[in-house]
Protein: RNA methyltransferase
Organism: Streptomyces musisoli
Amino acid sequence: MADLITVDDPDDPRLSDYTGLTDVELRRKREPAEGLFIAEGEKVIRRAKEAGYEMRSMLLSAKWIDVMRDVIDELPAPVYAVTPELAERVTGYHVHRGALASMQRKPLPTAGELLRSARRVVVMEAVNDHTNIGAIFRSAAALGMDAVLLSPDSADPLYRRSVKVSMGAVFSVPYARLESWPRDLDSVRDAGFTLLALTPDEKASSLDQAAPHRMERVALMLGAEGDGLSTQALVAADEWVRIPMSHGVDSLNVGAAAAVAFYAVATGRPES
């Protein structure tokens, strides 16, 4: 059973995992370096636990202690009970869901390990918006994508905002980082994948024309909001694909575009 500890000092060193959660640059550097990430809200905390992540501690306001009692009773990690006001002073924002957990990261698999068993893969290039990362992971999980590969400069899927937006789907879809971009796209192709670059360019084939759901193995490449895929990534692709637009709309938000494209890629996928 976890120890339930009441804390009334925002500078208590035991709360250090939770300090400055709104300082994006600090947390982006600190969390991977220290091997932790923050799960926010009851559902996300439970999903992280179910996915096998080890809990370092929990930070709860009083009303969430009974709600999380079963988790508290099962875990050896300390639970810090604080007032909402103290939680805000520590984290830097009002913790609406009243429950935070510091979780231990797992070692990431290599891209090669994921590609051996996958058939439908997402490849993200320089996607740095944490909301978009979370939305893409949620759609990937819901629509049957097998894995995600990230360029070296893409954002951290385990950053608090990404985890929250994905509703914990970042725990469901395995992911890895490519070490050399775009050179490592060759290894994806060598593993038997057709590289499809999603772009609004008029020269691209529509998803209906490309019929990715009939391809044996597909790696769908997505670029950052606004900039899209780089010239190097487009050149490395086997084929360009697009979502047909109407009413003068030129493109969709990358999160929305990903969901549409995932459905087109995964529908009718070969039986495993």
